[in-house]
Q: What sequence folds into this?
């Protein structure tokens, strides 16, 4: 297969073009156009569009000489970054913030089958793209096995090879994206060489006799609380309806509690119209709360029937 995920191609027999978003088998690929609709097509029925897509980074980078006093021994990350052209795609990068060369191999495992995906040398303070996949296929992703050997010509203590296995789940993408070192793009970062947590028995013993810490200060809530799930979680695409409802109700309870603590007289919860389940659940909770004076549909000209205004005692 000469194509890889993210390549920009044009159909031979039709006036269509798009990005390769799936490798179906040795002969078939999936191509997604501007309408975000993926079309299966024979690989010999498309052709590369030169000048589009990512530049090649296959050239070997020179060895960087690191002053001994600045030699960094940790900082190996996996960065997962959405494709800038095809939003359904994500690319895996291995980010090397250490002063070592990393002799790296990546294998995927699925149904007792193992497949080599990448092997190469990643220079100090450098990045290499090692894998691509569709985020919407997360539940079908294989497990990943990273094997890394640390190499340097400088006089340094021997560092043990690193082996890291991961089966990614939706919760791994629940956190906020961060700026990926060297690439200056937003993505999810996972450190592979985090130091082990060493528990000091004496410190643990002392902690049992420390007074309980004071509760964190509850912040005053905004006057309008938007409960739409896309405002609460970035990974809402992977959540079931019951999970979404539970998250929305939890956020509602925290905001209502904060309003009561700060003696806020009025607060509006934006729940949308939808199927009415969230609105119904909120109204049941409000009716039982003794701190609630009354509640009603908020300004219809502003929210329609998609918000509830709460008056507190």
A:
């Amino acid at each position: 297969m000469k194509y890889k995920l993210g390549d920009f191609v044009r159909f031979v027999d039709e006036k269509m073009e798009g990005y390769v978003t799936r490798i179906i088998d040795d002969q078939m690929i999936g191509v997604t156009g501007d309408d975000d609709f993926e079309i299966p097509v024979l690989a010999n029925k498309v052709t590369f569009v030169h000048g589009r897509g990512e530049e090649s980074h296959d050239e070997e980078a020179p060895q960087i000489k690191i002053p001994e006093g600045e030699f960094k021994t940790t900082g190996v990350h996996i960065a997962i970054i959405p494709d800038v052209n095809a939003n359904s795609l994500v690319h895996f990068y291995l980010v090397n913030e250490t002063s070592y060369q990393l002799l790296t191999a990546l294998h995927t495992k699925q149904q007792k089958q193992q497949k080599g995906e990448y092997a190469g040398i990643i220079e100090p303070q450098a990045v290499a793209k090692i894998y691509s996949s569709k985020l919407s296929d997360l539940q079908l992703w294989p497990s990943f096995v990273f094997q890394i050997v640390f190499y340097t010509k400088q006089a340094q203590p021997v560092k043990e090879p690193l082996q890291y296995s991961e089966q990614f789940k939706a919760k791994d993408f629940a956190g906020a994206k961060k700026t990926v070192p060297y690439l200056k793009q937003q993505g999810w970062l996972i450190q592979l060489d985090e130091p082990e947590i060493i528990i000091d028995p004496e410190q643990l013993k002392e902690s049992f006799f420390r007074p309980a810490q004071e509760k964190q200060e509850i912040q005053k809530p905004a006057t309008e609380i938007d409960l739409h799930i896309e405002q609460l979680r970035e990974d809402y695409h992977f959540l079931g309806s019951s999970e979404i409802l539970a998250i929305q109700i939890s956020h509602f309870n925290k905001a209502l509690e904060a309003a009561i603590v700060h003696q806020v007289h009025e607060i509006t919860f934006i729940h949308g119209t939808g199927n009415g389940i969230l609105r119904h659940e909120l109204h049941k909770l409000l009716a039982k709360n003794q701190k609630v004076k009354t509640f009603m549909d908020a300004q219809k000209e502003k929210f329609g029937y998609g918000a509830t205004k709460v008056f507190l005692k």
Notes: The CA atoms of residues 100 and 153 lie 9 Å apart. Residues 8-48 form one domain. The helical segments are 201-207, 229-232, 241-261, 277-288, 300-303. The longest helix spans residues 241-261.
